[in-house]
Design goal:
The protein is of the alpha+beta class. The chain is built from eleven helices and eight strands.
């Protein structure tokens, strides 16, 4: 947010573009180097080779721009169009990598894959943030100068007055529909706590995390036969004076003006969201592998079907998406560890307490995004 709130001046857009150019080629080169450090038989997998080729293409596309500074409106427009195309090129990186590592699992250990993906996917989050932030700043600035309305809460892709409870409701509605389509029932959800709390954060990250966590809670609740017991979601902002009104009920969310201005004094420095279910908990054997990429309760055939998009896996298990891509990941064992990576990127995290035979409490902690 260092360049200010849109509309940005042309010079600010040039500075944003040049900052992106000073960082992105280096990050892409590091990802190429990391992929080349994999065993040859793994890199030779066509899916992993495709990702390597995408990174090579992106780097070769950006290098000519990095050799000079962007100084004109035309140059900045062209650069933003190129970068938008590159972002779309990498939209399916995670599911393609997942399929590649699934096919190469006999050649590398699960621990090796997790170590590689921990670094690779966290680096990818930062790379996409840099690119998408400049693209969003450019688009919103151009829309304002052309007389079109924009949501004033946003600075690029960052929502400066994000209501976590609102995002919970949106994700719950989505998961509930798919759940009813698959199982014929949907558990109810109770949202309590300080539901009008707001933080500065990136909505698409929170949407992905909550969709994954709610999907797991819904599935466990139904398969345990506890769908008559509601899933409880509690929103608890970090302590700060005068941040939100007293506790409200979830029905009051819709009575507030979503676009009313909010002073910085009312922003919570962060928030914790607890999701509590009565789905029977996680077995000790599964809990030990919970944070490993690629660990799944699916059979090998189901996981392969999920990776390939086969109709052999039902809709509930393939509905998950990654920010910016909408790619299917469920059943591949990437949802929870990737969700934690998104939460931890800005200093948050995910903690899970499981009572085997009873249920789970999942604690999602989010830090507000700092101005710089």
């Amino acid at each position: 947010m260092r360049y200010g709130r849109p509309p940005l001046s042309n010079q600010a857009l040039y500075d944003s573009a040049n900052f992106s150019l000073s960082i992105l080629p280096i990050r892409l080169a590091h990802r190429i180097q990391a992929l080349r450090s994999l065993p040859f038989i793994v890199v030779a997998n066509p899916h992993i080779a495709q990702i390597h080729n995408n990174y090579m293409h992106s780097l070769s596309t950006l290098l000519p721009y990095a050799e000079k500074r962007i100084k004109t409106e035309h140059e900045e427009d062209i650069f933003t169009e190129v970068m938008d195309t590159l972002v779309q090129t990498h939209a399916n990186t995670i599911p393609v990598l997942a399929r590649g590592f699934l096919e190469a699992r006999k050649y590398v250990s699960p621990e090796y894959v997790t170590r590689f993906l921990e670094e690779h996917l966290r680096a990818r989050i930062g790379t996409r943030l840099i690119a998408e932030q400049h693209i969003a700043l450019h688009n919103s600035s151009r829309r304002i100068t052309q007389g079109h309305p924009v949501d004033e809460r946003f600075i690029g892709i960052i929502d400066t007055a994000l209501r976590p409870a609102r995002v919970v409701e949106q994700c719950e509605a989505f998961v509930s529909e798919i759940c009813e389509l698959t199982y014929g029932v949907r558990p109810s959800v109770i949202i309590d706590g300080q539901i009008d709390a707001r933080i500065v954060h990136i909505p698409v990250h929170l949407e992905y995390i909550l969709t994954e966590l709610l999907k797991n809670a819904f599935r466990a609740t139904i398969e345990k036969g506890s769908e008559n017991r509601p899933i409880e979601v509690t929103v608890a902002p970090f302590p700060k004076e005068n941040i939100v009104p007293p506790e409200q009920t979830s029905s009051q969310i819709c009575n507030r003006n979503e676009f009313e201005p909010v002073s910085s004094e009312k922003m919570a420095p962060g928030v914790t969201i607890r999701i509590r279910d009565r789905g029977g908990g996680i077995s000790p054997e599964c809990f030990a592998n919970l944070w490993n990429y690629g660990f799944t309760t699916f059979s090998d055939r189901q996981a392969t079907d999920a990776a390939s998009g086969s109709s052999g896996v039902d809709a509930f298990h393939v509905m998950s998406g990654t920010p910016g891509g909408g790619s299917k990941l469920a059943g591949l064992g990437y949802g929870v560890p990737l969700g934690r990576a998104y939460a931890e990127y800005f200093g948050g995290g995910i903690a899970i307490q499981s009572l085997w035979g009873w249920g789970c409490d999942v604690y999602l902690t989010l830090q507000g995004v700092e101005p710089d």
